[in-house]
Amino acid sequence: MSDIFTVPYRMMVKRLHEICKIDSSTSTELLSATEEEIAVWNKILGITAPFKQNYIRLDNMIERSVELYKRSLITYEKLEHLLGFSGVSPVEVGIVKSVYTPMTDSEIADILCEDDD
């Protein structure tokens, strides 16, 4: 709605509460979001604001890409590639690449020994 009517997020939440479309607890929860959280969701959902954006909106490409990554259906590198079409990085939508740390030989031996018992 804020995209269609160019209304700021917090004003939209307050108005939805005033017209009884959301209850007090939902309103409080939505209003407690930080500006960073709002910015992340705006990018994920492709919501534009009435000022110049530094990314390109491709329907729901960002949202779908993030969803696929969270469901472990695509790799981090594939996520970077897909988000690149919109000029957005994974960090901008709240995703940081995790570092893989392989198990040590002793950890592997412990697991193998447990199976023998």
Word description of this protein:
The longest helix is centred in the last third of the chain and has 12 residues, at 105-116. The N and C termini lie far apart (60 Å). The model has no long low-confidence stretch (mean pLDDT 82). 11% of the residues are buried. Helix 2 packs antiparallel against helix 3 and helix 5 (61-70) packs antiparallel against helix 6. It contains 7 helices and no strands. By secondary structure, it is an all-alpha fold. It has one domain (34-116).
Key traits:
single chain; 117 residues; mainly alpha
Please, how many domains?
A: 1
Structural class: mainly alpha
Sheet with most strands: none
- Rg (C-alpha, Å): 21 Å
Q: What's the count of strands?
A: 0
Name the shape in a single word.
Answer: elongated
Q: End-to-end distance, in Å?
A: 60 Å
Task: Catalogue the unreliable spans.
Answer: none
Please tell me the overall pLDDT: 82
**SSE ordering:** HHHHHHH
**Helicity range:** 40-55%
Number of helical stretches of at least 4 residues: 7
How much of the sequence lies in strands comes to: under 5%
Secondary structure elements and pairings:
Layout: H1 2-5, H2 9-18, H3 24-31, H4 35-45, H5 61-70, H6 76-84, H7 105-116
Helix pairs in contact: 2-3, 5-6
Could you provide a short overview of the structure?
The protein is an all-alpha fold and 117 residues long. The chain has helices at residues 2-5, 9-18, 24-31, 35-45, 61-70, 76-84, 105-116.
